[in-house]
Amino acid sequence: MKDGFALSGKLKIYFDNAATTPPMNHEGLNNEGSHYESSYEFGNPSSPHRLGISAERAMNSARAEFSEILDCEQSELIFTSSGTESNNLAILGFALANKRSNLRIFTEPWEHPSIIEPIRFAEELGIAEGLVAPLEKRPGNLPGLVVISHVSHETGDINDVSRIAAALKQENKQTFVFVDGAQGFCKENVDLSNVDMYSFSGHKIHGASGFGGLFSRVRLVPFMRGGSQENGMRAGTENVSALLQTAHAAKILHAGQDEARARVSAVKAVLLSIKDELPDCLENAMSENVSPYILNMSFLGIKGETLVHLLSEKGIYASMGAACRSRKKQKSLLEMMGYNHERAQSAVRFSFSHLNTVQEASMAKEIIVKHVTQLRKILGGR
User: N or C: where does the chain have the smaller number of CB atoms within 10 Å of the terminal CB?
Assistant: First the structure.
């Protein structure tokens, strides 16, 4: 890929990979080869004829790839249509399976909407009680389901999920742990030895939109009915082509995880150095253990939305945070994390992939510094 690759002659620097990534087979992005198994043409994996059998074999081969990456049994994987569906299945499926046990589901207020909303829905259905508060304020020895992110979609903070899960289970053996792995899968190492469920999403790792997965070693009750696919856990014909495309991407990213991390770290370092040239430019993170794939920065005196739109006109694509929340009129996640209103409203999230380059970051940095300075002068601020 050329540095700052062009679209219709215009500069295009894509720094919104936490929202979605360019698909691995996208023309011009790489030459890694086909994402299809050579034996697979098309077909319903449940059909008994040759095409159906070839589809089933290809799907089983891909399932083996995912189980190797997660170091789990193939039978512990459920394929879905998205990370959001996986999160819903984990939370609602677990709640339905435990509805007679006065289930409590705990999560932090800054988790993704696909975590918060299913918990609220479980409360509405009367099958669980939702407890939303920072992890350290969770009542001790409280059994139930704890839901955490592997990597924060907002700030990139990394959770040591195996250690956290082990500590929670030591407090109470009746505690179960579900990890939203959308931003961590194939980017950060994960040990599932103490984790009961882990979700992932195809389009976050250069795979296909319309595909997701869930690792689960606990009993769930499916809420989609009408077929026996995925061992009866998810009715509906499997999206084999999306599954194979994502398995192809996952295999490549997992194998090159260390190299990609180093490349992305260098890209992030360039943008982070904006702090050295602009006053009142702050990084937003809750810990020192932050993913190189995400950088959340506040440019005080300027609304993040204004800067995102201006950068888009210049060919630099970033965001104000999770795409699922971008149109909602509600308190921002940064404010829930404890940042003041001005800092939260002036935040921009840059998110990277192994396809980004230091040269792109340098070009973006120059444009950002120039236009933040100009905007502040126009707005009469800093």
Answer: N
